[in-house]
Amino acid sequence: MRPGAILVVGEAIGDFIPRDAEGRRYEAVLGGSGFNAALALARFGAHPAYAAALSTDALGRRFRAALAAEGIDTALIRDSARPTAVAIVSPLGPDGIPEFALYLQGTAHDEAQGTPRALPPGVTHLHAASFGATIGPSGDATGDLAASARTGGATISYDINIRATVLPERDRARALIEARIAQADIVKASLDDIAWLHPGEPAEAVAKHWRNLGARLVLVTRGSEGAIGYGAGEPLVATVPSVVVADTVGAGDTFIGGVLAVLAARGRLGRGFSEASREVLRDALAFACAVAADSCTRPGCDPPRRLAT
């Protein structure tokens, strides 16, 4: 694996996206938080590797082809004879927020060997994405992988990305998520994630709680209002450009890919993270907001090709 690689773990999902307002016509696009984040990192000039079990079915072959086309390291991909997991996305409501119906049981997502339990040589940073890094066989393996990353001096980011329909009841889900937060250096959550986990609590208070658990930087995305980073010192605020939204699928994955790509370009992942200045973090947030907004102008997760510097 290339020195300085960013290893991404998390789900690969075939997203069925509506192509009309009534949901009569759908298109199958490649998605899932893990896959999307790896895609964004590659397009922003980082060096991601992706680890997952991928089906040998038609969608699985499309995932492999897309990973290869983007130059993403696939050495840790494992074959599965099970079908690809899918999500049916509802037509957007007035708030522009998509709803997902996920179908995971009996799919490649359930494979026990899809996520490594030890960090491979050369990896500087581990990014753990959504429920694929939180629950089930892949979630269990991610806990061991994160412990290995911590021992090896790699930094860790965790995108909470709540999908309530596949999580256990709230208290149990919160415990699992907080266990992952305690292992992470960077935690990313949306306002909706925070509202589900901690109903009625201000985002700033929740971010403080997560920092007390061990996270060094908490990133809160706020849709059209941009993002806030809670770390040492005063919060960092980034605005988002005004765009015409096609949909918001994958915006959060594009955002975290943007943050990590800037930190990687500045040598501020791994052992260098402790030296990341407020200026570097501010630049990372600004870049992430810009590319996430750009992705929203196209259907599905389609990050722009823009080098992070």
TrEMBL record:
InterPro entries reported in the protein's UniProt record: Carboh/pur_kinase_PfkB_CS (IPR002173), PfkB_Carbo_kinase (IPR050306), PfkB_dom (IPR011611), Ribo/fructo_kinase (IPR002139), Ribokinase-like (IPR029056)
Record keywords: ATP-binding, Kinase, Nucleotide-binding, Transferase
One protein family per Pfam: PfkB
Keyword ATP-binding: yes
Listed EC numbers: 2.7.1.-
Gene3D superfamilies documented for this protein: 3.40.1190.20
Entry's Gene Ontology molecular function annotations: kinase activity
Domain (Carbohydrate kinase PfkB): residue spans on this chain: 6-303
Protein's UniProt keywords contain Oxidoreductase: no
Superkingdom in the source lineage: Bacteria
UniProt similarity note: Belongs to the carbohydrate kinase PfkB family.
Protein name: Carbohydrate kinase
Organism: Bosea massiliensis
